[in-house]
Write a structure and sequence with these properties.
With 190 residues, the chain is mainly beta. It has two helices and 14 strands, in the order βββαββββββββββαβ.
Length: 190
């Protein structure tokens, strides 16, 4: 199976550097199409999480307002995750994660049908992400961060900083998924 056959992808854009610093292309329609990513991005989001161990997620938008996301960390370091919530998927409830940082420049593509979340690994992290649909409050959804078995890289005894919304999300076991399985199983990130 080629990389493009997998729904969630870790993307490492090339950096071209010299004594002044570096330059990178973070998105190119043709390059992403060659990876099987053909959505059109229509909204960019930018968040700042001041305290270390801030956890945002696990979020998604339901059909017909689902969002593909392309996530990157532009300041600090985060552990970014995607959870398969497509009903009928052989990898339903399974997750993949990767460290994204300003230093490594990696990005995570998360398609519709996956819950997304991240935890900050240091203070003052900034995250940007592109979305394939605009925010729709009526389609806003999520599952509880601790109901999936994600191995969050939190120090022993540390409870993450959570929003009231994220504290109240339903557990995965109580979630009735509106997302269909598209035949592409979740696979480990390259």
């Amino acid at each position: 199976m080629t990389k493009a056959s997998y729904p969630v992808q870790l993307i490492a854009p090339k950096r071209h550097g010299d004594a002044r610093g570096w330059f990178t292309e973070t998105y190119n329609l043709s390059t992403f199409a060659a990876l099987g990513i053909t959505c059109t991005f229509v909204q960019d989001n930018h968040s700042l999480s001041a305290p270390a161990h801030t956890l945002r997620g696990l979020h998604f938008q339901t059909p017909p307002r689902g969002q593909d996301k392309l996530v990157r960390c532009i300041r600090g370091r985060i552990f970014d995750v995607a959870v398969d919530v497509r009903r009928g998927s052989p990898t339903y409830g399974q997750w993949v994660g990767a460290e994204l940082s300003a230093e490594n420049g990696d990005q995570l593509f998360i398609p519709i049908g996956f819950a997304h979340g991240f935890v900050t690994l240091e203070p003052d992290c900034e995250v940007t992400y592109k979305c394939s649909d605009t925010y729709a409050p009526e389609a806003d959804g999520g599952i509880r961060w601790d109901s999936v078995g994600i191995d969050w890289p939190l120090p022993a005894g540390v409870t993450p900083e959570l929003s009231d919304k994220d504290k109240a999300q339903p557990a995965l076991a109580d979630f009735d998924s509106p997302f269909p399985y598209d035949g592409r199983p979740l696979a480990p990130l390259a």
